[in-house]
Amino acid sequence: MITNTELHSQGNVFPGKLTSFDHVVDTLTFHADNGVILQVQIFRDSVIRFKYGTGGELEKDFSYAVEATSNRGYNKLSVVEKKNFYEITTSKIVCHIAKTDLKSRIFDLTGTIICEDELGFHYEESYQYGGEVVKMSKKAKPGESYYGLGDKPADNNLRAKRFEMWGTDQYAFGKTTDPLYKNVPFYIGLQNKVAYGIFFDNTFRSFFDFAQERHHVTSFWAQGGNMDYYFIYGPEVTSVVSVYTELTGKPELPPLWALGFHQCKWSYYPESNVREITSKFRELQIPCDAIYLDIDYMDGFRCFTWDNEKFPNPTKMISDLREEGFKTIAIIDPGIKVDPDYYVYQEAMENDYFCKRADGPYMKGKVWPGECYFPDYTNPKVRAWWADLFKGLIADNGLAGIWNDMNEPAVMGVPNKTFPDDVRHDYDGHPCSHRKAHNIYGAQMARATYEGVKKYIYPKRPFVITRSAYSGTQRYSSSWFGDNVATWEHLSIANIQAQRMALSGMSFAGSDIGGFAEQPTGELFARWIALGVFHPFCRVHSSGDHGDQEPWTFDENITNITRKFIELRYKLLPYLYTTFWQYAEEGTPMLKSLVVYDQEDAQTHYRNDEFLFGDKILVCPILEPNAKGRRMYIPRGEWYNFWTRETITGGKEVWVDADIHEIPLFVKSGAIIPRYPVMQYVGEKKIEFLTLDVYYTRGKEKSIVYEDAADGYDYKKGRFSLRNLSFKGKEKEIIISQYKDGKYMTEYETLRFNFIGLPFKIKYIEVDNVKISFKDLNYDQKTQTMYLDKNFVELHIVGK
Ligand code: GLC
């Protein structure tokens, strides 16, 4: 263990005494006598940015993550000079900056310490990097838990662990592999039921230590750049995530089909094979909305070209598939083949768009096509050029989305798997080396791709998926977790990664269902699909090395189970879409680990397996072979077993049956869950009515249903339909009231109510204060269903 004295003697420089202070609007600047500057910026009542400079200088602001347009403004700001510190007070928090060493301490309004510097900011001149290593250490409180950091495969709670951010191509990664593909330097601390977040906006190679090296200290540092971080006060974990997501940018709504089922493999070719696969889905009546073309569709792996032998008429094929309800998505990698006869290469050479080494030559590296050069996506001109390259694939050929891969960036056959440090980047007019641009490279590629797809698919909505990302990439793209393995351990890793990504502002994510490397057994595939349909992004993908991985690859029983779960996803599409809308509107995580759902219950702090899908459905995957069920923790409150409709009171661990055709699934009592009929793809059939499953409770619960045209941008002009439904249940009475917002006219006119757990026989029913006969409502006592006009305001049911 390193002691404080050792740290001080290791060449670390700490801020000296405060010599001057100034305050301009939302920004406070503290100057120390040794040239350290601390700039404190009040973003919101709950968000404070801390940026440090050394040598008497503060670098000019530039961030790829924080939107210039992100919500700012506070209700209150007072700054008072005290004997030993400055006291900054907003309507939510109090922050002290010490005069002796610029250390900060943050309190809530009751005076409880939320987050406190240990050694605080310090830095070290680094000869190796010709710059500084910037460091921050905070006190880790006993019992404090930590969450977040993007795609890390470790257990949910990060306490006593250490991590690195340096996007890396990690084929067949494992539970302890670090770093991984994505760079999300954001974590959440939870102590004494109060949560806060720290977003360290630094794209250099960075590190996080959650009380591992020193048990009472959490620290983070980067091999360059600035100590520049945002403190976000909760006190709820969910609000930390929402605010972080707003700060780094909320996503737009995807087209509804993108929430359907996607089928992928490396690779489906030639055209006849693609058609075989898509026909088989329709023949077996397994819903599917998207089919993927991996690298083999290209001519010699040259991006933006087609192999004309394998795909003689891609436009026709894509259009035929579209008729069948399939959206086609193709992969595009960053490596551009060095080939003087290839137009993309020529254009980039003519315009000087490729990355170069420090001494001038191009950055050359091997990827699928052999020797490649790589566009510098941190240059806005390159991004604009790249975006325009999509005209062919999107506008002309008719692809519905693009899959970006290998953008860490991955280079084959070199020990560090990526560019050397000295490669130059534009960094939007702030030229720098790869040390600074590495962690943002893939994110900027996804951004440029998104801009291109958006431009050429308009007036429809774009769909992009990326492997690498930095904080904020959720604005442009969905993502998957990279090259996992078909093992039971990886099923559990996928479960954790999906939850962690949701906690890290990137909800629209999922694993390669079934595993990328190696081949799953039918049982593992079935268990994985059962979990995967509850992940915001739902795609089967495999390397194809060990055989096929389609729903019909195993036996008929597995095919039927797969169909059943995919159908369940399609039924729940309006619920999932509503959940996405909440994410897009408020930054709410689409999946909630139990700690997010109920942080006040300490039992949830170390749980990994159970999570909430949206805010009403509890899911817990089966993660072992030969299981007939499992023990799981049911969070506090009343729940319905989705399959048996039995009720259970949470706050305890219980055994739940779930044979191979089931997954432990519970619905919060009082919830109203919207449902569509099963379709083979989004928009296949007219929706005759919207089913609302009402899970009776004695008490109150609010639910919402968001719908719109499922594609396009009319919703931004108010053409959406938002049903706010309040449920009130008594011993012998139910009242459901609806408040509607938005101008969108849904194609159905009727709501079908489906009551679950109704504890009484119905005496009479009133709709908007008028008694209605059972016949007029088509009330079926056996199934407990009835039909109502979609514009009802109040449904009043009185029991006998
Ligand atoms: C990478 C991707 C994988 C893809 C393969 C071929 O390994 O992670 O999803 O199938 O490259 O393009």
Automatic annotation (TrEMBL):
It holds the Pfam family Glyco_hydro_31_3rd. GO terms for molecular function: carbohydrate binding; hydrolase activity, hydrolyzing O-glycosyl compounds. Residues 251-578 form the Glycoside hydrolase family 31 TIM barrel domain. Keywords: Glycosidase, Hydrolase. The keyword Hydrolase applies. Residues 38-209 form the Glycoside hydrolase family 31 N-terminal domain. Belongs to the glycosyl hydrolase 31 family. PANTHER family: ALPHA-GLUCOSIDASE, HETEROGLYCAN GLUCOSIDASE 1. This is Alpha-glucosidase, family 31 of glycosyl hydrolases. It comes from Psychroflexus torquis (strain ATCC 700755 / CIP 106069 / ACAM 623).
